[in-house]
Amino acid sequence: LGVIPLGERFRDQLPLGDVGLVTLGEGSTPLLASPRLSERLGAEVWLKWEGANPTGSFKDRGMTVAVSRALADGAGAVVCASTGNTAASAAAYAARAGLAALILQPAGAVARGKIAQALATGARLVEIQGSFDETLSVASALAEQGTHVLVNSLNPLRLEGQKTAAFELVAELNGPPDVVALPYGGGGNACAYGQGFREAGAGLPNFVLGEAAVRAETAASAIRIGRPAHEKAATALVEASGGAVVPLSDAEILAAWRDLAHGEGLFCEPSSAAGVAALFRRPPPAGSRVVCIITGHGLKDPDAVARESTDVRSLPPDPKLVAEAVR
Ligand code: F0G
Questions:
Q1: 176 lines ligand 1 (CB under 6 A)
Q2: Does ligand 1 come within 6 angstroms of the Cβ of 177?
Q3: If you take atom 6 of ligand 1, which residue's CA is the nearest one?
Q4: Under a CB-based contact definition with an 8 Å cutoff, are residues 113 and 91 in contact?
Q5: What is the pLDDT of residues 219-252, one digit of tens each?
Q6: Distance 33 CA to ligand 1 centre (A)
Q7: What is the pTM of this model?
């Protein structure tokens, strides 16, 4: 049984009409029990593993919808500004659709695996000598000239696709969780979950959003965003849901990232652990049902691991020596 693409599974709830799908098999990601986090937090904790999407992040949920529509509407090219995951996703779906992709990225600020993904799938990559916020302004200005369709989350079709993750949670848990925790970069994904839970008609969980305390300089490069594009809507959602925005140090984000990897065997990229880190600071009610959205795969950022642990011995092929060395 293969993955049913989310554009097919949820077509009736998406603004797709009967357009042909540009799909790589996105959505229907695993919801994993998290015994060690559950014990530590005194709650029933689940991990929604979005790294299992085709390009390794939740961006694919929105990209299948945005690119399917762009192709159907006769576009020739897409453009985005990105800290890397939107880029990898846009490049792959554009290639699948036979469209050109122009990727703008803040210079020196994107993880290696993500750059490799965009280049491998044939995107045109340009480094902008500035912040993510400045890069996004350039992408928006180019899109306004009409040559490229913008596939950042300012394109509402992206959030339409991303809202399907909330539908999946409601279906699997027979209702919304009590708490949902996720990283807060530009805020588009939080808003998409809000939209999804509202449309599912089953009530809102408390939204707990983990953001970098020093947004513009965090080591968690995926969420290195000075001014969140969806700040107003994300703040309103957090308030309406009785949740919180939790500013986090890099040490807190990296500690949660290590806990997920060592304790649960889940290797995500550092930014993806920000929701978990936020829960350590603002524990959920005892016994409540909690879902942490783990947004992107660890393989995207091998340098994050290299910065941590380099304890690898090199030995000759001699069992005695190896046994001694690992004793
Ligand atoms: N987690 C990961 C792995 C991300 O790549 C992003 C955003 C977020 C969380 C935050 O999501 O912006 O909707 O609040 N990445 C964007 C990009 C900025 O360009 O790939 P948000």
A1: no
A2: no
A3: 222
A4: no
A5: 999 999 999 999 999 999 999 999 999 999 999 9
A6: 24
A7: 0.97
